[in-house]
Amino acid sequence: QSALTQPRSVSGSPGQSVTISCTGTSSDVGGYNYVSWYQQHPGKAPKLMIYDVSKRPSGVPDRFSGSKSGNTASLTISGLQAEDEADYYCCSYAASWEVFGGGTKLTVL
Amino acid sequence: EVQLVESGGGLVQPGGSLRLSCAASGFTFGSYWMHWVRQAPGKGLVWVSRINSAGSITGYADSVKGRFTISRDNAKNTLYLQMNSLRAEDTAVYYCANYYYDSSGYYYGLGYWGQGTLVTVSS
Description:
The complex is a heterodimer.
Chain A: E1 9-12, E2 18-23, E3 35-40, E4 47-50, E5 64-69, E6 72-77, E7 86-93, E8 98-100, E9 104-108
Parallel strand pairs in A: 1-9
Antiparallel strand pairs in A: 2-6, 3-4, 3-7, 5-6, 7-8, 7-9
Chain B: E1 3-7, E2 10-12, E3 18-25, E4 34-39, E5 45-51, E6 58-60, E7 68-73, E8 78-83, E9 92-102, E10 105-113, E11 117-121
Parallel strand pairs in B: 2-11
Antiparallel strand pairs in B: 1-3, 3-8, 4-5, 4-9, 5-6, 7-8, 9-10, 9-11
């Protein structure tokens, strides 16, 4: 049950694209197509942005996209906007548990 | 509209116990898995526990296994987390959450979250 590995921070300018990686093992990320991504603004509850690796819940802009290759999943945010500045967490389902990544702080320059 | 409201947090001494509750409304509570997720001050999200719709299957993070017990009362639309042998490192905001769902079923992403309840373990 080790935490998934994410970069501590990423940054980009408005209009640019950024990608956040999330590395696990064959027991979690690599073993299931059940990676999800969350956005969290300070003092707020997390918000689901991506589930099942690449699907978006209703209401999430299509600027947010997800993918996976082997034991690494990725979240890409295109057309960066100021309101995208937040913490982002990946999460993977595993057979008997679920595990989050350590979180990535996105700064919009 | 899905609503999850946690309660029961507070200050407790190391070694003490606390029971958290999560009152659910706006969806068929008894049909969905439920989870507890915590976040220590200034730190990241950590999955704590989950329970299936019937209450017969549970899972725990290694850090709480043997000390925490998740349960539910579907008649009262309420989720619980009994926390025993509390440690300073259990200090966190505790969120209840459930899988995102639509008319086709549920999916392995936590789509609905409460506002959280703060647990502080300190002498």
